[in-house]
């Protein structure tokens, strides 16, 4: 099986050069691929197939450095769609999927569109990066078109719910049966919060622009390691493998035709757990704790994004939006509550300390003004003929 990953990687100039003149007697002899290497590589060096076999080109956002290129072949399109179609989301021909992911270079929106095409489902594109479809219009489209599945970033789920509340539109809208969330970590307590808020099951998607879509969570929220085209390893700070049940750093290998990856150290914090002995499905489970850059370190204690979410979504009053800021040893929670929530920074500070022993400051302020959330579209077509 490991030979297939190596053979896939060697289709690209990047890996031919990287592995040239190296003696590879075992899997452990293969060096890790780093983000920096992918960022510095030519887009055509990482290409793993002839250009005539390529369907789409994508790039990472570039928020943490130079964007990383990523190619998807026509064969990859089918495989990516089937990751969705084989999941417990159970996308069907009679579904109407409202797709809130941006189509500007990111990959989740395309994978969902490909899945809809494969199964014959109806697709509604409401790109979050487009001025034509602000939150208010998305809620109005939901009311008119009655999608059965809404796909979006987790933070969009919170914003759209609040916009609907401001417009006195009850959720869930008629026919809605599931949320499909990707692009941000969703911890168990955050998942439970969304399901209570929207009244439908939540499914999450694990992957990235570089790796493609790898796993869809099951109804319990678990990522099962059931994708034969993907190999997941977890290593410690010294790059040594850790046993199941121990958190470490993710190393991913994929056989994607357009851009294969071989032992890609992507800075995700992961843990592989054995399934519960009583579980009918004994496939190992992947736990995602977020990226190492999304952690805080308070007096020697590491808080992952997963653990921060578990704290926030266990509060008696859950904020609409939130951020955590660290300056030295000083931790500040910046929380935005809705107009109908009566809270004080002191009470939240005390609750956080009681639940976590974190002696953090709390600021309650608007991160995104409510009036901006419910604003009408700022974009309109250019008018050539005007009557006054």
Automatic annotation (TrEMBL):
Question: What is the protein named?
Answer: Phenylacetate--CoA ligase family protein
Q: Which GO terms describe its molecular function?
A: ligase activity
Q: Which domain of life is it from?
A: Bacteria
Q: Where is the AMP-dependent synthetase/ligase domain?
A: 51-249
Give the matching InterPro entries.
AMP-dep_synth/lig_dom, ANL_N_sf
Query: Which UniProt key words apply to this protein?
Result: Ligase
The answer to whether keyword Ligase applies is yes
